[in-house]
What does this fold into?
Amino acid sequence: MRKTRLHATVSTLLLVSFIAAFSAGRRTAQFDEITVGKINIVDAEGRTRVMLAGGYPPRREDLAGLIFINQEGVEAGGLVYTGTRDTTDGVEAGAILTFDQFDNDQIVALSYDQSGDQKRHGLTIQDRPDTLSDRVREAYRAVDGASSPEARDSLVSFHLSRIPQQEFVSRRLFVGRSWDRASLVTLSDPNGKPRLRLEVDSLGAASISFLDEEGEVVRTIEP
It folds into this structure.
C-alpha cells in the first residue's frame, strides 16, 4: 500500500511539473513523433499565421499542406498537394505554391497538375482588381457554401459565365509544359486573351505566334 501511495504521489508531482512547464511564459518541448490533424502556428499576438493540416474542409478536404495567413486574418497563399491512383482513370494529382494578392486570391502560382497520362506544370502570373466587386464576393460566398465538390464545380461554372474576366482574374503569363507536351511561354492581354506564344512542341518544332483578340493566330514565325 505504501508503495502504491508513493507511486501515486510521484506520478502526481510529475504531472504537475509537466503541466507547469507548458503553462510557463516560454514553452519549449521536444518530441520524436506526433500525430495530429492540424497545427495552428501563431504570432506574438496570438493570431494564427500558418496552418499545417492534412486537409482543409469543406471545399479543400483533399488538399494537405500549409496555408499562410496575414495579420488581418485573411489567407495570403499556401503550399498544398493532393494525389491518388484511381483504377478507372489512373493518376489524379497536383501540387501548387501560391502567393495571394492582399484580401484577394492568387496572383502568382507554381503548379503541377496530372489527370491520367495528361500533365501540365509551370509558372502562372495573373492580374486581379484591387477591390472585389459585389458579384465576385457573392460568387465566393456561394462556392464556399457548396455541399459537395460537384456542387462547387457547378457554382464556379455558373458564376464565371456571368462575371467579366477582368472583374475576376486575367492570366497574363504562363511559362511551363502544356497538356499537349509543348514547352510554352504565353503572354496575354489585360482581358486574359493570349496574344503572343513562344512554343517548342512535342516533336521539337519551334515557333512564335501572334494572336488577335479572338485568339486566332494572325502570324507565325518559324525557323
